[in-house]
Design a protein that fits this description.
By secondary structure, chain A is an all-alpha fold. Helices cover 56% and strands 0% of the residues of chain A. In chain A, helix 1 crosses helix 2. The two termini of chain A are 17 Å apart. Chain B is of the alpha/beta class. Chain B has eleven helices and eleven strands. Classes of the chains: A mainly alpha, B alpha/beta.
């Protein structure tokens, strides 16, 4: 799980072009939006694309999406349980 | 109706050191690769770290040029009007590539959002909180000219002083350069860009890119504008005779003769197909100095922006940069410049500039 979270963090960095940031600088439980990484609504769409392209996960319920994209930990948990590729 | 537009500020990000006008051509930049690239600046000055990570080069250089121009003029724009021949080509290429690779599913929103032609205007409006008139003209090689014509109409119809931000921007991607090479846009022989105009016995030119912005006003209230644009004219694929007639008509309408034009600033691009037009222009203005600019910025749809920036520079500094001179003229002072450009497709534009101080 720990290795997977590092991989996921690197994918988030690449997908959102977070220049100069390293996986170890992202806290597993820090909020992705608002405080923490400070991402915005376009980033949330980019993260949905990341989930679909890399793990075959399509989230169509906005409320569920909000829960999944709370933190790296919540994303990792959801991916482990629902990944199709 | 007053159709004179005063240039209150001009900013140009180009393949030359033009962002800081004091550094212009010191040293000159050249290339042997058949294309010239914009010299990137520190774009973080006007764009937040969150926003900049999503932006293409075109967006970054255009927003920076636009914001710097407004800062130099120290005004809030009353309108934002721009022209671009191709818009954000790199974002569009990314988006189209992803559509094919991911079979039209799971497409990144960022590339799509920012591939639209008016994304630069949108960003500038957000940055400046300018909610008034906002327009982007996309008409290939005459895009900037049409934006300038719109600015001229806008400024001539309002009461009181208004300031319009006008810009032109285009980027050259590897793929675009490759595709246009197949249809003969570029020179096949390897040449140094600074030698481009000596190679006018073969077809083709060199590619370029850039972003130029101008704050234009209908009133030189503070006497801080050194240059005024007094006339703009576009011509659809003119013959040599039609071009000559248009030049004579433009001069007459503005109360000038050929002897009044101190400098003919030409967008000659080394293409042998345009030699007759450039020769005709030179013959019509025998006493004028002749200068050129596409060997400095390359050819692209809104290259006239670099030409307009250079014309403003020449009048403000009262100097002709040595590297731009094709022929010396009889006049020492630079009071009137005729900016002439031809697009690769053969359309033409004429702009009359006048010293306003």
């Amino acid at each position: 799980m720990e290795d997977f979270k590092v991989t996921l963090k690197q994918q988030i960095i690449d997908s959102l072009n977070l220049q100069g940031m390293k996986p170890e600088e992202i806290d597993d439980n820090a909020p992705l939006f608002g405080e923490g990484l400070g991402l915005d609504s376009i980033d949330s769409l980019e993260l949905m694309v990341l989930l679909e392209r890399n793990y075959g996960i399509k989230i169509e319920d906005a409320r569920e999406g909000r829960k999944v994209l709370t933190s790296v930990q919540s994303m990792a948990d959801y991916i482990q349980q629902n990944r199709k590729i | 109706m007053n159709r004179v537009m005063y240039i209150k500020a001009a900013t140009c990000i180009s393949p030359q050191h033009s962002y800081d006008a004091e550094m212009f051509l010191a040293p000159p930049v050249s290339s042997d690769t058949g294309r010239l690239y914009v010299l990137d600046q520190d774009y973080r000055k006007y764009i937040s770290p969150v926003a900049i990570r999503r932006m293409s080069r075109l967006l970054k250089m255009s927003i920076t040029a636009g914001m710097q121009c407004l800062a130099d003029a120290n005004v809030q724009p009353d309108a934002i009007i721009t022209g671009t021949g191709r818009g954000s080509v790199s974002d569009m290429e990314h988006f189209l590539h992803d559509m094919i690779e991911f079979k039209e599913e799971a497409l990144n929103p960022t590339y799509f959002i920012q591939s639209t032609y008016n994304s630069v205007n949108g960003w500038l409006a957000l940055q400046t909180k300018c909610t008034s008139y906002n327009q982007t003209y996309v008409h290939r090689g005459l895009s900037l000219e049409l934006a300038l014509l719109d600015a001229q109409l806008t400024l001539s119809e309002v009461d009181g002083t208004q300031n319009v931000l006008v810009g032109g921007f285009d980027e050259m991607t590897d793929y675009y350069h490759f595709v246009k090479n197949k249809v003969g846009y570029w020179k096949q022989e390897q040449i140094n860009s600074l030698e481009l105009l000596k190679h006018n016995d073969t077809t083709g030119t060199i590619g370029g890119e850039g972003s130029s912005f101008f704050v234009l006003s209908n009133d030189n209230d503070n006497d801080n504008a050194t240059t005024a644009i007094t006339a703009i004219q576009t011509l659809h694929k003119p013959t040599v005779e039609e071009l000559q007639t248009a030049v004579l008509s433009l001069l007459t309408k503005n109360g000038l003769t050929a002897n009044d034009i101190d400098v003919l600033l030409s967008g000659m691009n080394g293409n042998s197909g345009f030699k007759a037009f450039n020769d005709a222009m030179a013959n019509m203005l025998p006493g004028s100095a002749i200068a050129a600019f596409k060997h400095l910025c390359g050819d692209f749809d809104t290259a006239t922006g670099f030409g307009l920036w250079l014309a403003n520079y020449m009048i403000a500094k009262q100097t002709l940069p040595e590297l731009a001179i094709i022929k010396q003229g009889t006049s020492k002072a630079i009071k009137h410049i005729l900016l002439f450009n031809q697009t690769i497709a053969g359309d033409a534009s004429l702009m009359l500039l006048e010293q306003s101080l």
